[in-house]
Design a protein that fits this description.
Keywords: ATP-binding, Glutamine amidotransferase, GMP biosynthesis, Ligase, Nucleotide-binding, Purine biosynthesis. Pathway: Purine metabolism; GMP biosynthesis; GMP from XMP (L-Gln route): step 1/1. This is GMP synthase [glutamine-hydrolyzing]. It catalyses: XMP + L-glutamine + ATP + H2O = GMP + L-glutamate + AMP + diphosphate + 2 H(+). Homodimer. By secondary structure, the protein is of the alpha/beta class. It has 2 domains: 192 residues, Rossmann fold (3-Layer(aba) Sandwich), CATH 3.40.50.620; 103 residues, GMP Synthetase, Chain A, domain 3 (2-Layer Sandwich). 41% of the residues lie in helices and 18% in strands. It is built from 10 helices and 12 strands. A 5-stranded parallel β-sheet has the order 3-2-1-4-5, sandwiched between helices. Strands 6, 7, 8, 9 and 12 form a 5-stranded mixed β-sheet that branches. A two-stranded antiparallel ribbon has the order 10-11. Helix 2 crosses helix 7 and helix 4 runs antiparallel to helix 5. The chain binds xanthosine-5'-monophosphate (XMP).
């Protein structure tokens, strides 16, 4: 019979046996899966684990700090943070095509991660033999061939495997579903902001800016997104919605009025959806007063945004993300 306690105990024993006195590396993405996988391995082998977090500058407000401070405080894990913001911005310069963005972000991520890996190995000698991955049961089933759903967008999971891999994998979540992973994370004492986090795409805000990705646009979108999340949380709606992408239409401008001046700013799109598994989704019927609050705050507080629109498209035909 299944309890979080027994899962943890079983995994810790197995990991200890496997790793012995060798060393392991784990990439953290800010998401639930990699955090819980890392916390389990940390519990098993302590400082024999080093985590790597690539800061690509495409995270939402506060998320990097959650990893750097809260996750480290909760687990005591050894963490190497790589600030690669400039590098990603440079690589994304002039690029508007969604698939092109995904490819660039995925490619740069792997390069930066491999470099960090090489540095850790250089520091600690050849005894680094294990790579920790937050693979879940549904991922295992999916990559096992399964039903072969059409690959509509290329999905990159940040934390994606380098190709010329010479590590053994540790995948302590291979038998678990998402809700079980959350329970394990909670039992391990991880912060709620990480354990209860809704899905967020690997390429981050890079695919929520329709148009070229720039530092200014990222900062603007981060503000708008933080307001939407804050109000949804305050209204107690986090459990009712699957996720709510906030999208900046950077290539669109519309006319508005503020005080006695004309404005010519960008729209922000709210895309709240309900879903079971992200394969299909419906747009969430959020209370009007919550939408009104979010709209008022975003247009008042975020410079260059003069309009907030609601996406009322189901999936299909729309995807959850705009890119
Ligand atoms: P779509 O937009 O295809 O998204 O309806 C379905 C779910 O997948 C997430 N998503 C991604 N996750 N890397 C990820 O790790 C990606 O490139 C990516 N693209 C979309 C999306 O947030 C939704 O939960």
């Amino acid at each position: 019979d299944w309890t979080t306690g027994s899962v943890i105990e079983e995994q810790v024993t197995a990991i200890r046996e496997l790793v012995g006195d060798k060393r392991a590396i784990c990439g953290l993405s800010g998401g639930v899966d990699s955090a819980v996988a890392a916390a389990l391995v940390q519990k098993a082998v302590g400082s024999q684990l080093t985590c790597v977090y690539v800061d690509h500058g495409l995270m939402r407000k506060g998320e990097t700090e959650q990893v750097e401070k809260d996750f480290v405080a909760a687990t005591g894990v050894q963490l190497k943070v790589v600030d690669a913001q400039e590098r990603f911005l440079d690589a994304l310069k002039g690029v508007s095509d969604p698939e092109e963005k995904r490819k660039i972000i995925g490619r740069e991520f792997i390069r930066v991660f491999e470099q960090a890996q090489a540095e850790i190995i250089a520091d600690s000698g050849p005894e680094v033999e294990f790579l920790v991955q937050g693979t879940l049961y549904p991922d295992v089933v999916e990559s096992g061939g399964g039903t072969g759903t059409a690959n509509i967008k290329s999905h990159h999971n940040v934390g994606g495997l380098p190709e010329d891999l010479e590590f053994q994998l540790i995948e302590p979540l291979r038998k678990l579903f998402k809700d079980e992973v959350r329970m394990v994370g909670q039992e391990l004492g991880l912060p709620d902001e990480i354990v209860q986090r809704q899905p967020f795409p690997g390429p981050g805000l890079g695919i929520r800016i329709v148009g070229e990705v720039t530092k200014e646009r990222l900062d603007l979108l981060r503000e708008a997104d933080a307001i939407a999340r804050e109000e949804l949380t305050a209204a107690g709606l986090d459990r009712d919605i699957w996720q709510c992408p906030v999208v900046l239409l950077a290539d669109v401008r519309s006319v508005g009025v503020q005080g006695d001046g004309r404005t010519y700013g960008h729209p922000i799109v709210l895309r709240p959806v309900s879903s079971e598994d992200a394969m299909t989704a419906d747009w969430s019927r959020l209370p009007y007063d919550v939408l009104a609050k979010i709209s008022t705050r975003i247009t008042n507080e975020v410079r260059d945004v003069n309009r907030v629109v609601l996406d009322v498209t189901s999936k299909p035909p729309g995807t959850i993300e705009w890119e």
